[in-house]
## 1
Amino acid sequence: MKNRIISALLILVLSMFVYSISYSKDIIINRNLDLSEFTTVFVEVEPNEKLEVYDTKNYLDSLKTLYEEILLEFGFNVISRDKITNIIEEQKLQYTGLTRSESLYKVGKIIGSDGIIFVRVTFVNDNLSFDEEVKLVSVNAGEIVFIGRFSSDDDKGRRKSKEQMKKSREEIIKTFYQEIQTSKKKKIEERKIEEKKNEERKNEESQTNK
């Protein structure tokens, strides 16, 4: 009987741990962090050798703009790329020897960003089919908060339309937005419970002193 109880407890603990870091095969959320604080972000599209061959800067900029627009639609505060570039230029000497990511973390702290949205496009064949990954990293903790992924082709290998791919991007951001809202509500409820406990404690102390 005792062994069964211990086994059940172990299963419960393990399931809680898995739930705290995963959402689905395409979405991973780190619920060990306070998600309610991630409201101000900026977007960085990571360079890719193949992207540089097939265009580049225009594609990277348009992808960054698209994510910025989606984030704004869901109520995030998005820091402009011009502001990021200006700070990097101003701090150039201090950032000598740092990688692009390391420089961005430092910039994020200066401008008060909660996180950085990294977008990575990985081509999987010569037909330019690709996987796209969206990753939010905490500026302060340096931890991954959220990862979302989707493919350019559907399950039958057919290329998705631009509208379908935009919807996939929106679904990723929407999922994260919903998690933030849930976290905020939970925090408010916890605060209310704590305030109620404090009030009851004060009343008990008041009654005791009479």
Note: The first strand starts at residue 27 and ends at 29.
## 2
Amino acid sequence: MWLKLNLKDLLTGLLPLIKGEIERGLSSLRPLPNPLLHKEGEPYRIFLLLAVTILFFGCRQDMHDQPKYEPLEKSDFFSDTRSERDQIEGTVPRGELREDTHFYNGKVDNQPARTFPMELTEAVVKRGQERFNIYCSPCHDQLGTGHGMVVRRGFKGPPSLHIDRLREAPVGYFFDVITNGFGVMSSYAEQVPVADRWAIIAYIRALQLSQHANVSDLPENVKKELESESQRGSHE
């Protein structure tokens, strides 16, 4: 009993001492000064404020979720629920008036045009050659004989551009075929703009002429070159 009492008294006397030591130990563990809480930390506070502001506005979806209809999206405004609307009757889209039927339709007096609607220049023919080699040569080949790579792989071949029927066909005929397609050939209206269609036709005419040209059709400078080459060949 005496031992228990003395131990109790001992613990009662030590508790204040232990408590004081713990408090002194905790007080020695002071945190480092926070620059945001002191005057010298003013730049840090400004930086933090700017960062929070940018983060706040960056989370807005106004530019991402724009007030517009996606293609074929349902509409609650129109009675038929279609957001895609038909063109208003009697109106013409800007830049789509197309009064020049010669240029846009390849027709004059409702007949296939026999003349080009623009001046033919070397640049136009070169443009036509480029477009022809891209879009036409896979079937027609680069000479227009109708033996392109697609045909060699089994696709039905087109007629040669050098047959009499196509050599005599008006340029408006070729424009119509490029625009609307013919036989197994589909329309190229989406791939080839109107001006490029005429450029291709100009190059077709150049191809046709190249296979049926006479010396009398050549420019004088070319004739002289051919004559000089012929003379050199005869002397060798």
Note: Strands lie at 107-108, 111-112.
